[in-house]
Structure formats: structure tokens, C-alpha cells
């Protein structure tokens, strides 16, 4: 894979509390690891991998996760199919540089321009490998169906695309996808109930915004997947939530965002929205290039 065509993979693991185990998982991911976001309330971690060896890295991560984690002993707020819950592959074609010259700029001009071909190929290879090597049932998502559809239908009226027709006894199942760049985003609410959070989530949902409301140890949270973040990003979701009555204590970005997202939001709002130049995909890719 050339420098002008990178793949990102953002596996979500059902473990967010055991720091020693998370360090060992990060270590096997190798130099392609750009970020780890661990959440003890959701009992979930988001690993961000990118580069020419991304498929080998996620396979190594999956091997250790299946060996070490046990879904039957798992308790967390976030919905989950398995210990390796979600494995999305994302095309990251890069241009010559960001506006400030800090590093390669990830183009976020939509699936039609970027193309999902390489991501779909990687998705299908991983699903075949995980079924054969780890005995994991794998459900595919992307152009065929969405991730929420997989969660609703898995083992009900939807059979796995690869692997056995029953969950792995300890590791469950995995949703393996191909998608464009997405932003995971949380808003913590101040002195509001989980019922209020769920009501707000229902009103905030749209084709570009997936939203859930959670009760996390007595604190209410709005949790989002922003499917088209350059059209409907953190600023738009934050402002609409406030307009609908949300009292926001703080915002939280999960993982990394494209630098283009910061470029379209006034820098004076970055702290409020939990946006930082060093927590962009481009900044982490540049940091890895310098380390190499």
C-alpha cells in the first residue's frame, strides 16, 4: 500500500478497566497504533491503527483479545456482540500536507471520492481469517447493511457471513466493517437523568447522527457516532443538544478526528468541544513518521 493510500482500522474491544491488559494489547498492535481510548464506564476501548501493516496489527490484537477476554464475565454500559466487538476498516487517502504544513492531510471528501475498495477487501480478509483462525462468527457491515442493523438482527434473522452460526463461548461475535471517516463523541450532562438523556438522544438522531443515552454510575451521558462529521460534527451536535435543553458538563472525543474538522470550527471553541490539534489522525501519522 502506498503512502498515498492508507488504511485505518478502529477495533473496539470489550475491555476498559484492566490497565495492565490494555498495555499488553497495545504492545502487540505494534508501531501502527496511533491511539487508545479506554472507558471504564462503558468497559470498552477504542484502538486506532493505521499504515501498511494495519491488517497484521488488528489480527495480533484479535488473537490476544480472544485469548484473554471473556464476554460471559463482562458488564458495561455499551451494547456489544463480542470481546472484539467492532472492526471497521477506513480508507484514508492522503494529500501532500495540512494547511499548516504539519503533515499528510487525510482527504474526507466522501466514500464516492475516496472509495471503499481497499477497505472492503481488508474487511473480507479479516472476516475470513477470524472465522478460520479464531472460530469467531463475523457479521459484515458497510454498503450491504449498517452496524445498527447488525446489532438488531445478529443471530435473530441474520446469520453470520463467516464462521460458526453460534456465538463463541467466551468471545461472542464480531461486526467487521468498511466505512468512511467517522467521529465518536460523548456529551456528559449536568444534573440531568438518564431518561432525559435517552429522550434527547431520540430527538438528536438523524441519518448523519447515531445517538444513545446512558446512565453511567448515576451520571447521564449522550453518546454519538457522527457518520458525516464534516457536515454534522461536534459543534452542530453540541449546539443542537443545548437548544433542546441539554445542560452539558463536558464534551469528550473518543479516539482521533480528521484535521479538516478543526479547520472548519473557530479555535476558540476547541476546548469546549474537546478538540485538539495533537489528537488528529494527521498529527499522529506525522508523529509516527518522525519516530521512524
Give a description of the structure.
This protein has ten helices and eleven strands. The protein has 292 residues and is of the alpha+beta class. The chain folds into two domains: 6-178, Formiminotransferase-cyclodeaminase, Chain B, domain 1; 183-291, Alpha-Beta Plaits (2-Layer Sandwich). The strands form two sheets. Strands 1, 2, 3, 4, 5, 6 and 7 form a seven-stranded mixed β-sheet that branches. Helix 1 (19-29) runs antiparallel to helix 2 and helix 2 (54-68) packs parallel to helix 4 (117-134). The longest helix is centred in the middle third of the chain and has 18 residues, at 117-134. The radius of gyration is 18 Å and the shape is globular. It starts with 5 loop residues before the first strand and ends with a helix. Residues 96-103 and 107-114 have low confidence and may be disordered.
CATH topology of the largest domain: Formiminotransferase-cyclodeaminase, Chain B, domain 1
Which range does the strand content fall in?
15-25%
Largest sheet: 7 strands, mixed
CATH classification class of the largest domain: Alpha Beta
Q: What's the total number of strands?
A: 11
Please summarize what this structure is:
With about 290 residues, the protein is α+β, with helices and mostly antiparallel strands.
Helices and strands in order, then pairings?
Elements: E1 6-9, E2 12-13, H1 19-29, E3 33-39, E4 44-50, H2 54-68, E5 84-92, H3 111-114, H4 117-134, E6 138-141, H5 147-153, E7 174-178, E8 183-189, H6 194-204, E9 209-216, E10 219-226, H7 234-243, E11 248-254, H8 259-263, H9 270-273, H10 281-291
Parallel strand pairs: 5-7, 6-7
Antiparallel strand pairs: 1-4, 1-5, 2-4, 2-5, 3-4, 8-10, 8-11, 9-10
